[in-house]
Every structure is written in structure tokens, then in C-alpha cells.
Design brief:
The protein has helices at about 5, 10-20, 25-40, 40-60, 70-80, 95-110, 195-200; strands spanning about 125-130, 140-145, 150-155, 165-170, 180-185, 190, 205-215, 225-230, 235. The protein has about 240 residues and is of the alpha+beta class. It folds into two domains: about 5-110; about 125-235, Immunoglobulin-like (Sandwich). Strands 6-3-2-1-9 form a five-stranded antiparallel sheet, with helices on one face. A hairpin with a 6-residue loop joins β4 and β5 (about 180-185). It starts with a helix and ends with a strand.
Length: about 240
């Protein structure tokens, strides 16, 4: 990796890329950050990671136009007595939106099981998979660090089912699913990978979660319905 690449991806850049992904930058800043993302692999990986983090939030809410006059009423309640200036209202000021953006980033990250604390630079290939299924509220995000062989699984949504357990499966190509064990919902966990799973795990591997009897499938093959599924993708 070049020295130039190593200079990218610091904590300040992580926040800038997050603001870019959220569309919170003005036109000039958005264009400048977009050029940096295009030029630097680490920033492109950070951007793809943020898009994945935020994709679950995108699907939760339908876009609906706000009724006329809502903005004025919100401003009046938040800032009683405030008046507009020639440069625009307080609500429209860059400083105000930056403060809102910072708060939103923290809330968004915590809501999906991650935070904005500094983390080591990405030095090796990493795989990520978003697991979900139509008609199911069970959602996971899985991160696999190929450098140290660690699979981290974070539950985004879903609830425990009495008398049932969620079981994680690895599916490589046309091979039969291999159980990776029972996994919790509403929690983060490090999943132990067997040598067989680790050897075949890579981009294109499918991760699936099924709802099984307590303790998992007794046959070594999926028995219950698939409640979440996703394909590992390199970032």
C-alpha cells in the first residue's frame, strides 16, 4: 500500500465520507469529497461501508413530502423569537446543519450496532454481507476480516421466538449449507468458523439465517424457514 493511501481514511475522513453518503455537504464540498473517494481505494471502501450501513434505514421509510408550513412551525418551536437574516434562517445555516449531521451520524451508527470510534486503518481485504429477506423483520450485517479470519455478526432488527433459535449457515456455490451455529438477535457476536467454512469463505459466499428448534437443526441441514440471507461482497 502506498504512503498516499495510508494518509487517507483517518477519523476526519470517516466523518466526511459519512456526510457525503448522507448528502449533507454543499455542492462544492460534495464534488471535492467525491473526487477524493474516486481517487483513493480506502475512501471508496469507507463509502461502500457507509452505504451498506445506511441502506437498512433507507428501506424503513417511504419518502413523503412535508405539508406546507411545517418548516416555519418547527423553527418557531425550536427557536422562539428567532428572526430570519439576509443570509437565511438559522435552520438553513451551515453550522446548524453540521451539528445536526454529527448527531445523526452518532444515532445512525449506534442504531445499527456500530460507532464512530477510531478504528485501525483497513490494511487487508474485508468482506461484508447484508442479510435480510422479504417479509421478515430479521436483519443482520456480517463483516469478515480475511486477514485474521474473524467473522463479526451484528443483528440490526428481529426478536427472539420462544422455543426457537436462529441458526447461521454458510453456502458456497452449489455445496450443501454448512452450519455456523446458533446466533442471537439484537446483539453483536463473533462467530467461530470451522476450518471447512474458513477455507471456502470468500466473495460470493452466501450467508443465511434460518429459524430452527431450540439448539439448532438436529440434522445438520436447514429445517426451518430462511429469515435473512445475503452474499459476501469485498469492500
Amino acid at each position: 500500500m502506498s504512503t498516499d493511501e495510508q494518509s487517507e481514511g483517518g477519523e476526519g475522513d470517516q466523518v466526511l465520507v459519512a456526510e457525503f453518503a448522507l448528502g449533507l455537504l454543499d455542492n462544492a464540498e460534495h464534488a471535492a469529497v467525491g473526487r477524493r473517494i474516486a481517487d483513493h481505494p480506502l475512501l471508496r471502501r469507507e463509502y461502500r461501508l457507509w452505504r451498506l450501513r445506511l441502506s437498512a434505514l433507507d428501506r424503513e421509510f417511504a419518502e413523503t413530502p412535508a405539508p406546507a408550513g411545517v418548516l416555519a412551525r418547527i423553527e418557531a418551536r425550536l427557536f422562539p423569537g428567532a428572526t430570519n437574516t439576509s443570509s437565511g434562517s438559522l435552520w438553513q445555516s451551515l453550522a446548524f446543519w453540521r451539528a445536526v449531521a454529527a448527531a445523526f451520524l452518532v444515532v445512525a451508527a449506534v442504531s445499527i450496532g456500530f460507532n464512530l470510534a477510531p478504528r485501525p486503518p483497513l490494511t487487508g481485504p474485508e468482506l461484508v454481507a447484508a442479510l435480510e429477506a422479504e417479509g421478515s423483520n430479521v436483519k443482520f450485517v456480517a463483516f469478515y476480516d480475511q486477514q485474521n479470519g474473524t467473522l463479526r455478526l451484528a443483528a440490526l432488527s428481529g426478536a427472539a421466538v420462544p422455543g426457537k433459535d436462529y441458526e447461521l449457515w454458510s453456502i458456497h456455490g452449489k455445496d450443501a449449507p454448512i452450519s455456523m451455529g446458533v446466533v442471537p438477535v439484537n446483539a453483536k457476536t463473533n462467530v467461530t468458523m470451522s476450518p471447512t467454512v474458513k477455507q471456502s469463505f470468500g466473495a460470493g459466499t452466501v450467508l443465511a439465517v434460518t429459524l430452527e428448534q431450540t439448539g439448532g437443526s438436529p440434522t445438520g441441514a436447514p429445517q426451518g424457514p430462511v429469515v435473512a440471507m445475503g452474499t459476501a461482497t469485498a469492500i
